[in-house]
């Protein structure tokens, strides 16, 4: 099974989410596929740099992975900002969500267990 990493960047009690455009779109954690030879943490740092121009420190995993296809499993990691401000590059929208706002968003289905877990951590 290959891994997709989602990164829950948390700052001041809010989490940064990104809207994936298109027919399969919805709110998600920025991130992407782990490349051969990379650790999950390295992939998280690379993807967040590429997608948001942000330097992060990756923290703990938000619980068990969720299968998103026969080939890929989603793992979500907490992270904090080391430097930079998020830049919109690949998504259609970025938004910081407080715990009480998380339910307002139309999250991708595989992300929902992680969102539930996050609510207790913000
Ligand atoms: N990044 C991200 N992808 C997610 C989440 N939830 C979820 O189901 N996915 C799915 C959508 C995509 O099918 C897949 C991630 O693919 P991607 O297109 O972001 O990966 P990538 O940046 O490495 O891009 P590519 O090289 O395949 O073009 O995982 C999530 O929270 N974050």
From TrEMBL:
It catalyses: 8-oxo-dGTP + H2O = 8-oxo-dGMP + diphosphate + H(+). Residues 1-122 form the Nudix hydrolase domain. It comes from the Bacteria. Keywords: DNA damage, DNA repair, DNA replication, Hydrolase, Magnesium, Metal-binding, Mutator protein. Signal peptide: none annotated. It is an enzyme of class 3 (hydrolase). The keyword Hydrolase applies. The keyword Metal-binding applies. GO terms for biological process: DNA repair; DNA replication. Pfam families: NUDIX (PF00293). Its EC number is 3.6.1.55. PANTHER family: 8-OXO-DGTP DIPHOSPHATASE, NUDIX HYDROLASE FAMILY PROTEIN. Belongs to the Nudix hydrolase family. This is 8-oxo-dGTP diphosphatase.
